[in-house]
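Hey, quick one: can you model this chain's 3D structure?
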Amino acid sequence: MIGDSGVGKSSILLRFTDDDFLPVEESAPTIGVDFKVKFVEIEEKKYKLAIWDTAGQERFRTLTSSYYRGAQGIIMGKHQLFA
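Sure thing. Here's the predicted structure for all 83 residues.
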């Protein structure tokens, strides 16, 4: 998962992997990277998803590219502004 700080990457990951939700006031920015595993079954075949939650702060940008090198997919979080 990639995207700017504060877009909800960690919240989406926690909800998807653990079916849990952390209120905003209890959340903290990801430092470096977080990693979770989720097993899913599609058409009677089991898959293991290894999902990396990368930090969105500018100071970690040089590190994040090394985490998604070789990835088979990317989930991108983005702020939506309402005008």
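One thing worth noting: The chain has a mean pLDDT of 79.
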